[in-house]
Specification:
Strand order of the largest sheet of chain B: 2-1-7-8-9
Helix content of chain A: under 10%
Order of helices and strands of chain B: HEHEHEHEHEHEHEHHEHEHEEEEHHH
Structural class of chain A: mainly beta
Distance between the termini of chain B: 31 Å
Largest interface: A-B, 31 and 51 residues
Largest sheet of chain A: 5 strands, antiparallel
Mean pLDDT of chain B: 90
Number of strands of chain A: 5
Radius of gyration of chain A: 13 Å
Shape of chain A: globular
Radius of gyration of chain B: 21 Å
Order of helices and strands of chain A: EEEEE
Number of helices of chain A: 0
Low-confidence stretches of chain A: 1-14
Distance between the termini of chain A: 25 Å
Helix content of chain B: 25-40%
Strand content of chain B: 15-25%
Oligomer: heterodimer
Number of strands of chain B: 13
Low-confidence stretches of chain B: none
Chain lengths: 75, 371
């Protein structure tokens, strides 16, 4: 069962989702992609200087933290 | 560690289990509370408790926002959902939370327009697309979810969307922690602190736990090795006689939290003088309401709500579970009258709830070795 299909609380539960910013959109929104490839619109109004490629932690549709960059995998 | 699978490495898990075993003082019983439902879920999903000696007991705290909602608030939500012309929106888990007579799912079956959304932004989009209808969002969650609601209300105002409102049930984590610590007979050795709440509010607000109550608190991530390392850090503090806030999750949690999130929350919300929590009763300044500046978006102003306090069903022991006084399987109706399919208590509804975690991962009393 993939992460995407697992039963999980979609309110707080304090579980957030890590996504990558794919495209910046008007009005403080961004198109983001999960590791499983699902695209979603996220409010990035709480992130300082967001850029395409940034990984952010999303909770209930809003990014609440920018994550440290993940290095490219080798092999 | 860089990639998520590395935080789930069984080899490193065994190493940490060995170090936890070595840190335990033989014959001493340790009770450590994981405050957050996300940690409860991780502990049972990955079987972390099976890697601990018998005398390290994990106690499940009140950190599932669905589980702590009292029945009277669910009744209020159902009453609004039945108002003519209303589209009522909520997160999926709230659909099955029992009120005194029905759930939101029952209300939908009876004709109310109740819809599941994944974020308040989704609810606002529905309002934009249905200008002739009143769209209400049932806002639930701790400081992790509250910024999203606040941003959405600000967005609604900027866009002039006047057919949108919220029933605000946002709660804050620090007052119930204090209420638990003040409870007579409450015995705990330390806390695993909520990592993503700390992303918003920072690590500093938890300082009162070691300073005023002499308990260690380690802010933790949600991968299995995060949780195990945090347990080890709590045991380490106890062994060394230290009592402080440590940040195991420093790859995500900044010391001062997210100032922009705190700013928007301070603008849109105000503290309620008191709020009823399941199991804990009324806790002062433990929840948020929509501030007077945003009063036009407050569904409790826009619609009549019963506002009646409803006692929990007698058979339900969610309150004792939420206080860590009993384990879920010790509840009289666990797994029999109360199951995830037809829950009596809130702790069985949300997958973050302790009862659901025990039920879904087959956890009942197990024999473990004490040292």
């Amino acid at each position: 069962v993939s992460e995407e299909l697992e039963p999980r609380c979609i309110t707080c539960g304090d579980l957030a989702e890590e996504v990558a910013i794919v495209a910046l959109e008007p009005a403080g929104l961004a198109c983001c992609r999960t590791d499983a490839g699902r695209e979603t619109t996220v409010d990035i109004g709480l992130i300082a200087e967001p850029e395409v490629g940034d990984r952010v932690l999303v909770h209930a549709g809003a990014a609440i933290a920018k994550l440290a960059p993940t290095p490219e995998r080798s092999g | 560690l860089k990639f998520v699978e590395e935080f789930r490495d069984p080899r490193l898990g065994r190493v940490l289990a060995g170090r936890i075993l070595a840190a335990v003082e033989p014959g001493r019983h340790y009770k450590v509370m994981e405050v957050c439902g996300g940690h409860t879920h991780a502990i049972y999903r990955y079987g972390i408790d099976d890697l601990l000696p018998e005398n390290v007991e994990l106690v499940h705290g009140p950190g599932c926002p669905v589980c702590v909602i009292p029945m009277g608030r669910v009744d209020d939500a159902i009453a609004i959902s039945r108002e003519p012309g209303v589209i009522f929106t909520c997160f999926g888990d709230m659909m099955r939370v029992p009120g005194s007579e029905a759930t939101l799912l029952d209300a939908r079956a009876a004709g109310a327009d109740v819809r599941t959304v994944y974020s308040p932004l989704d609810a606002l989009r529905i309002a934009r697309e249905n200008p002739e209808r009143e769209v209400v969002f049932l806002a639930v969650g701790f400081e992790t979810t509250a910024p999203s609601t606040a941003l959405t209300l600000r967005r609604a105002r900027e866009e002039g969307i006047d057919n949108f409102s919220c029933v605000c049930n946002h709660v804050t984590i620090l007052p119930p922690l204090k209420a638990l610590l003040d409870s007579p007979g409450f015995e705990l050795d330390g806390f695993i602190g909520p990592g993503h709440v700390a992303t918003v509010i920072g690590a500093r607000p938890f300082e009162f736990v070691p300073r005023a109550y002499g308990r260690p608190l380690v802010i933790s991530g949600f991968e299995p090795l995060d949780v195990m390392q945090s347990i080890l850090m709590v045991l380490g503090q106890l062994a060394e006689g230290r009592r402080e806030v440590e940040n195991q999750y420093n790859r995500v949690v900044p010391e001062d939290g997210n100032p922009a999130a705190l700013e928007v929350m301070a603008d849109v919300f105000e503290l309620r003088p008191h709020f009823e929590w399941r199991g804990l009763g009324f806790v002062s300044q433990s929840a948020l309401r929509i501030s007077d500046r945003y009063a036009e978006f407050d569904a409790e102003h826009r619609f009549p709500v019963p506002g009646v306090r409803v006692a929990d069903p007698k058979a339900c022991q969610c309150g004792e579970v939420l206080k860590g006084a009993i384990k879920p399987w010790e509840c009289k109706v666990f797994g029999t009258a109360c199951t995830p399919e037809r829950a009596i208590g809130t702790c069985m509804v949300s997958s973050e709830g302790a009862c659901a975690a025990y039920y879904n991962f087959g956890r009942v009393r197990r024999e473990r070795v004490s040292v």
